[in-house]
Specification:
Helix content: 25-40%
Structural class: alpha+beta
Number of strands: 23
Number of domains: 3
Largest sheet: 5 strands, parallel
Radius of gyration: 27 Å
Strand order of the largest sheet: 2-3-1-4-7
Strand content: 15-25%
Oligomer: single chain
Distance between the termini: 67 Å
Shape: elongated
Length: 436
């Protein structure tokens, strides 16, 4: 890591019998509850484990299944202490860490705050009612004297000097709510642009040009299709939402496995395979850094209004502009979902057509060459009027039971169109209290 100690020299300096015995004694005297120890090397981790009763070592070679079981046993308090090297510095969600012990020196403030940050999650045991309210930090190598950890932002890896005025406001207040406030500040047009600038296109093992969301998920989409990979859970499992003509959700044992399956879906599913220039990193590299097109700039101005000037829209790259539009469309879809409900067929948001005479699924994309033709999407479209009654925008939010809409004391069934482009229908089939 740039600006830090060389790992070989670090192990030689730290992994010594006398200092290892001192670390073990510090653990025995001062630790409180479930403890995570950061070692300076794999050899150092195993040397410490020999001196600490019940300790288990996790390193980069620990198989994923074994790692999950270890985390489960640690969270269940079957394992009192984990010793790791290079595994739990980031991206690990283990809220039941009551003590963090640092047994590796570092000059890198980001690494330091990542290590301390592993223990900053609050935890509540629903079975016993126990609540974790704080974290005990045992610093055996004096890092606290060399790194500024006096502010809440730096404790979770945020450098206050790099935050703008709005982000600095977001980090003020209790530490427990800071991640949510930072996420909210990132879910803005400026945050969308910065996320693109921070993402390395080569980071994907399957050459997928993901667009990151403030909630930690990753998204790619085209006309009538999208894929969302959710952030890994505590056991590194990953959920992926696939939306084409229908919506499905799958769960995978790791992000690497998930990416492999997503890549195969993209290559072989007809619609996204034709949009390869939108999601394959080799294609995106060719156009991504070119200036945003006039069409992109115009669309951003229409969707963001005055907010477009906050991101200097005229100087965006094509990839930055695509990320802004993608995030803006998703926010718009959430508004539609709140107003009109979700498509009964594919689960995406519904919206009113421009003439306000019909509802249509936001996944639909149409082309008109004499007649309207569905290019992509599930095809759901139906008249605003149902059995002679005007369906108001909020009506489709009403309770849906067993596949039926309950509205004004009546039970309505959704009948999808038989042919693409035809209208679906909502048909009254009786009173809400009927069993039929």
């Amino acid at each position: 890591m740039a600006g830090d100690f060389q790992l070989s020299a670090l192990n030689d300096a730290v992994n010594r019998p006398k200092s290892n015995a001192q670390v073990a004694e510090a653990y025995r005297q001062f630790h409180r509850g479930q403890t995570l120890i950061f070692a300076s090397s794999v050899q150092h981790a195993h040397a410490l484990a020999e001196l600490i009763e019940g300790a288990v070592v996790v390193d980069g070679k620990t198989p994923m299944d074994e790692r999950r079981q270890i985390i489960e046993d640690f969270t269940a308090r079957k394992i009192p202490v984990l010793i790791n090297f290079g595994v739990f510095t980031e991206g690990t969600d283990m809220p039941l860490i009551e003590t963090v012990l640092l047994a590796r020196p570092t000059r890198n403030s980001t690494l330091y705050t990542q290590m301390v940050g592993r223990g900053l999650r609050l935890y509540e045991d629903p079975a016993t009612g126990y609540r974790k309210k704080d974290l005990l930090l045992i610093d055996c190598v004096g890092d606290s004297d060399k790194n500024d950890i006096c502010t809440a932002p730096s404790l979770i890896g945020i450098d206050p000097s790099e935050l703008d005025e709005n982000e600095q406001k977001a980090v003020r207040g209790p530490l427990s709510g800071m991640r949510d406030r930072i996420a909210a500040s990132e879910d803005t047009p400026e945050g969308w642009v910065l996320s693109v600038r921070k993402v390395d296109l080569t980071a994907s093992s399957q050459n997928i040009a993901w667009i990151r969301r403030a909630d930690g998920s990753k998204v790619i989409r085209g006309k009538g299709w999208s894929v969302r990979m959710h952030a890994p859970d505590i056991l590194y499992r990953v959920k992926v939402d696939y939306i084409g003509t229908l919506k499905s959700t799958r769960e995978y044992d790791s992000e690497e496995i998930a990416e492999g399956v997503v890549r195969r879906w993209l290559d072989h599913y007809p619609i996204p395979s034709q949009d390869k220039s939108l999601w394959d990193t080799e294609f995106v590299k060719k156009w991504g850094n070119k200036p945003a097109s006039s069409a992109q700039v115009g669309q951003i101005r229409r969707m963001l209004g005055d907010g477009a000037e906050e991101i200097d829209v005229e100087h965006l790259t094509k990839r930055e502009a695509a990320a802004v539009l993608d995030n803006a469309f998703e926010k718009q879809e959430k508004v539609f979902a709140d107003m009109y409900g979700l498509c009964p067929k594919c689960g995406q948001a519904l919206k009113l057509t421009k003439n306000k005479k019909s509802f249509t699924c936001t996944s639909n994309h149409w082309s008109k060459d004499g007649t309207w033709t569905l290019i992509s999407g599930c095809g759901t479209t139906f008249k605003v009027r149902a059995d002679g009654h005007c369906v108001k925008p909020a009506d489709l939010k009403e309770i849906q039971e067993n596949g039926f809409y309950i509205w004004r004391g009546k039970k309505y069934a959704f009948e999808p169109a038989h042919n693409p482009g035809d209208f679906s229908a909502i048909r009254c089939i009786g009173n809400a209290d009927d069993d039929s």
